[in-house]
Amino acid sequence: MELRLALLGCGHVGQAFIALAAAKDAELRARYGLDLVFTGGLTRAAGGWAAPAGISAAALAAAAWPRAGRSDGALPSSAAAFAGDALAFAATCPADVLIELTPLDPLTGEPATSHVRAALTAGRHVVTANKGPIAHAYRELRALATAHGVALRFESTVMDGTPLFNLAEFTLPATRITSFRGVLNSTTNYVLGALAGGATLEDALAGARALGIAEANPAYDLDGWDAAVKATVLANVLMGADLRPAQVARLGLGASAMRAARAALPAGHALRQLVEVERATAGGIVAAVRLRALPANDPLAHLAGMETALTLRTDTMGELTLIEGEGGPEQTAFGVLADLVVIARGIGDLAN
Amino acid sequence: MELRLALLGCGHVGQAFIALAAAKDAELRARYGLDLVFTGGLTRAAGGWAAPAGISAAALAAAAWPRAGRSDGALPSSAAAFAGDALAFAATCPADVLIELTPLDPLTGEPATSHVRAALTAGRHVVTANKGPIAHAYRELRALATAHGVALRFESTVMDGTPLFNLAEFTLPATRITSFRGVLNSTTNYVLGALAGGATLEDALAGARALGIAEANPAYDLDGWDAAVKATVLANVLMGADLRPAQVARLGLGASAMRAARAALPAGHALRQLVEVERATAGGIVAAVRLRALPANDPLAHLAGMETALTLRTDTMGELTLIEGEGGPEQTAFGVLADLVVIARGIGDLAN
Predict the structure, then answer these.
(1) Residue among B172, B303, B341 minimizing CB distance to A174
(2) ipTM, interface predicted TM-score of the complex
(3) What is the count of residue pairs from A and B with beta carbons less than 8 Å apart?
């Protein structure tokens, strides 16, 4: 089958996805009968284009868009400029799937949520690597996707493309996830590792920025907002919660708390920014992000550099831990591809 | 849909599976429209029975078979004794799926391979937790399943029901697994942990036996045969190899090597029985099991007790590590259930 893709946002992840789609083109055709073509793209800096006839991944990878910073930057001649804004693009671009890759606003989930809503309402599948819509509007968007008979998939919202949501849907049937804990913010993990190695907080943050992993505002990472948004996505999807990021307790975080916790760390322990989500005895689901001193025998104590990890506690498999090695745009792009293959194979639960 | 199940072998895993099927019965019906019924069973000690009309998981869990040690032990009256042997049972029992749970012979894979062959030839799906057939005859059995339009699934052959094969099939599309390493034998891991805590080898082995995890012949675990069989299954299924367990190098294993390696262990390192499989530069796939001194920052260095773990190196996700908490019959039974759900949903690649 052919899937016509529209890219809304095309930064590091979008460009990695185009490259991955080009590299895996032959395998996708041979293994899944899947033919991916690009029929539109829009970024704030480079403008929008539409190409109803489709552009191959290889041709798009070779074109200057979006790196040229303009909509017609060396695109194949079948592409025409798209005049509308992002919302109009989500609603009217000629595509089967909208791939939502715009920047995240963790406090509101906008404008990505509006983009997703518009695409679903217009009968398009949506694959998003943007946590905002799932953290802020999962139930509404899931119901909308179901009502329109399309898929809403978001593997790359947590731990890049590490199988978490696809893992739960396809490999853990009839399983109740009773709690989870994780180290989900790679910047904080990198900074804590550098501190443990003797660096100052300033040097550690500068190192994270040099690696391109830190947000422009370090508080987003160190103060636990990124982890809180991810905890919300996991809790709402995997445990049926209906949390919002502001309901995730962020306890004793930030630079000064980190310095104090370092100073008080017991020997043989490692400091981690830990997400902990569990069912409360009185009902409901409670979620928190805090610094924890983990003993050496904890699998989450030894994450190096930018590794992230999640431990699921289940009623069927006991504890199951996933560790992602060095994550980045390539891994996030892979999660987008994995979601597209699920759509093409028709094996997913549309309601997820 | 209804799936009629026949159990060939019903020890700890089989009984855990019956209990799990009973516990999850309502959820399987509601979530997947799946109705599991048992239409036959056979063990060496308790004999065989067939019940074409089907017995519910709850009724079978309440019956004395196979614990009563005889085929008619308090089974519902719809069950009649099955007079033939295991091979006849695999070929002629009234079932859609043969669940192969007989004891493993790591050197030959028999008699389980013959059971699986007979069931596939008779047009039955097969779910097996027995590594032997997959380690010794995967390509032949896969081709046989394809020829007969039935499924051959085996999630529980490595790391109990931890998603490995279902993970690769459903969540890692278009991904090339380039190498893997793992700690796959829980008995050896337990023994090494006890040695690190100061126990003698004899005491450590006695502890493993008391926990019910050690094979009757400890050499099977400590000498690396169990790990070699698992390495073969993983290499053949995930990397397209065509190895046999005897082709997996078993290097410096056994009790005396373990004592020597303990004595020479560098400070801050942990000793692990490690499976390592990779593509050789000259082509082909090489596999080995050996004792390795792992540094503290290796995620496989900190496995406690009976934990097992596998790190996949992939061309899409980089390194991905899965850690199973305390494994046992319940987790193995879950893998069997997960395979049945894949069959019922019709989402699996029959050729796997």
Answers:
(1) B341
(2) 0.95
(3) 144
